[in-house]
Design brief:
The protein has 120 residues and is mostly beta strands. 0% of the residues lie in helices and 49% in strands.
C-alpha cells in the first residue's frame, strides 16, 4: 500500500519561498497513470488543489496559483516537491500531498498533512 509523507519547515517568513517534499513509499511515482498532487487547507476553509505532477513528469497547476507554484520530482528518491514563492499570511495552511489515478477522480491516497505558518 502506498504511503505519502510530507516534510519541510513549519514556519516561513512573508515574501520567502515555501518548499515542501513528499516522500513516497510502497509505489513508484513513475507508475502509469498516477498523478501526484499538492492540496492545502487554510484554517476555517475548504481544500484547495494547488497542482500536480504526472507519472510522465508533466505538471499541472491551479490557475490561481500558477504564477507562484512549481512542482518537481526526484525519481531516484521517489519524491516530489512543492515550491510556492512570495508567500503571505494567506498561504498559512495544512499542506497535503496526495495520489490519484486521474485529475478528474477523487484522491485515493493522502499524506498526513503538515502545518505551514507564514509569519514574521
Amino acid at each position: 500500500q502506498v504511503q505519502l509523507q510530507e516534510s519541510g519547515p513549519g514556519l516561513v517568513k512573508p515574501s520567502q519561498t515555501l518548499s515542501l517534499t513528499c516522500t513516497v513509499s510502497g509505489g513508484s511515482i513513475t507508475t502509469n497513470y498516477y498523478y501526484w498532487s499538492w492540496i492545502r487547507q487554510p484554517p476555517g476553509k475548504g481544500l484547495e488543489w494547488m497542482g500536480a505532477i504526472a507519472y510522465s513528469g508533466s505538471t499541472y497547476y491551479s490557475p490561481s496559483l500558477k504564477s507562484r507554484t512549481s512542482i518537481s520530482r526526484d525519481t531516484s528518491k521517489n519524491q516530489f516537491t512543492l515550491q510556492l514563492s512570495s508567500v503571505t499570511p494567506e498561504d498559512t495552511a495544512v499542506y497535503y500531498c496526495a495520489r490519484r489515478l486521474d485529475l478528474t477522480v477523487p484522491v485515493a491516497d493522502w499524506g498526513q498533512g503538515t502545518q505551514v505558518t507564514v509569519s514574521s
